[in-house]
Amino acid sequence: MTAPTTYELSSLQALEAESIHIFREVAAEFERPVLLFSGGKDSVVMLHVARKAFWPAPIPFPVMHVDTGHNFPEVLAFRDSTVQKMGLRLVVASVEESLANGRVKERPDGVRNPLQTVTLLDAIQSNGFDAVFGGARRDEEKARAKERVFSFRDEFGQWDPKNQRPELWSLYNGRHHKGEHIRVFPLSNWTELDIWSYLAKENAELPSIYFAHEREVFSRDGMWLPVSEHTSPREGEEIQRLMVRYRTVGDIPITGAVESTAATFDEIITEIAATRITERGATRADDRLTEAAMEDRKKEGYF
Amino acid sequence: MELLRFATAGSVDDGKSTLIGRLLYDTKSIFEDQLEAVERTSRDRGDEHVNLALLTDGLRAEREQGITIDVAYRYFATPKRTFIIADTPGHIQYTRNMVTGASTASLALVLVDARNGIVEQSRRHAFLASLLRVPHVVLCVNKMDLVDYDEAVFNRLKDEFRNFATKLDIGDLSFIPISALKGDNVVHRSENMPWYDGSSLLHHLEEVHIASDRNLIDVRFPVQYVIRPQSSAYHDYRGYAGTVAGGVMKPGDEVLVLESGLTTTIESIDTADGPVDEAYPPMSVTVRLADDIDISRGDMICRPQNKPEATQDVEAMVCWLTDEPLQDRGMYAVKHTTRNVRAQVRDIEYRIDVNTLHRDESATSLTLNEIGRIKLRTTKPLFVDQYRRNRTTGSFLLIDESTGSTVGAGMIL
Question: Does ipTM exceed 0.90?
Fold first, then answer.
């Protein structure tokens, strides 16, 4: 792994070792873990590290995707091919189903991102999952910067930021009663640049939309939205054909593209190292609602 | 590139947020949209200056009350190292937060205001850093610009702090005169203090030698998980997965397994990227052994001539983390390495005053943020080292069995 004389790990090796440790703790101490896999880059890294944690045995838990029905087709195709290649069991929790059976109602603005919480919590409950791996990172957002690696959720899936368990050394307390669960964030200490450097080092596969491609887009609220089944320009919004790529992958209506010609890992890393805007700030409308938008959603049980 | 985890201690008035803000800003780790949001909020609140504390105070309650509630983790990188800052708040639940932040830190950065000198809080920070065995402590004498960059002020504080530190167990202590606001000696050496011939703070963080902080002598491998693929390709594969907690392990080494006490040799050390010649902390690996012996989670692989103590009687310094006090004779769940046992408190020997280091031997309990020396009797043996020898095999959590909360942090003596 590294030069035998120095006994030092690189920063990426240390982060990987920490994440592997977390995966193994959960597999050892919980009965029904599940890994949230959206096909986004962070969940790709999670899955990659999880495979290493249990090799040569298969990953000992299923993956789950909360499908809003507003996903990028490239990402769904990637999700399915990855699951098939790795021989995983995929649980799909569908927001459209939650809408159909009246668990949630479509919002006036048509944005489905906040509706996911109900679908997610219903799926956790009906499947009896007691540990849910998420790819959230502390560098992403200020509410996430305060969240534990093992984050306790009560029977309603709620997060109480003022009453979190202190987390010391590498000792993780996963105690919970029936009906409660723990969200586990193995990539807590990774930064966006770490994620990309690791993907490059491991030569991992990603959905194509992370790399520069030509796309019809229009500008709304300072973001480039794609022309798609779910998003079209309103009056006065002009369609342009641009070279773009995605820094984050979420629901189509709330995920903006960035103008970019970065078509390889190295080009993306160079671009990120020079950028002066955070990934969520550049590309996510869902965080722009209020200053505490993420905190409020997390308290209710969001990712 | 190496990773350095460090904890910062000091109150808002010492300029800690300004210092962190400057480290992040000068290493281009604050982004424009973050800075704009902070500027906007500062303006709305009527703050006189851009309040960089808003960068780390992420929770609504923190912003409303203008206080930091919880440890915040911040990240930055230079071409030499990547850094994780555990920023511990100065006011509320100080001890609990600093103990948490310091538990994983290789370095503690203690800030004092050059005008106020070494105050009670600085001594408390130094004590907690030494209790948690943070190997490197840096005392930053901040606001040097407000004392005319006077060498005599710096030397006086340095002597005073060093005097106090002799009573503590601090491995490596450094002193840096800075002005976080003006940037003196933070990233670059200051021209305002030609009398200072040491490094800037960032240079110190980049260069401080942390590789020797780990224990590379005593082999300790707590078994975390047993890997048995039971597939046709790996039909007979049986590997013991875990994170190396101490020493250097090699294939061919003779090892002893606790708790059985049986010996065997390491056949190979596997990772998904192929076998390795050596494994050392904090690598996560899978060990295969030559003989088929019964091993499960909670067992410890070590060397026949160098093993941890297997004991049911544990003496430890404990920091209490919750409102409900520690009960003498109380039962708690214990999490130690990969082992879960129960334990009864058999004695509270003394409570220590974190400000004066005075020992109160009449103490009968510990309440939130208090630290004391206690004796525990566990239901099953633990495989322990002194915390001063190994931070992983020497630490444990006490957990309330009914609520599941983490209530105590223990360091074995």
Answer: yes
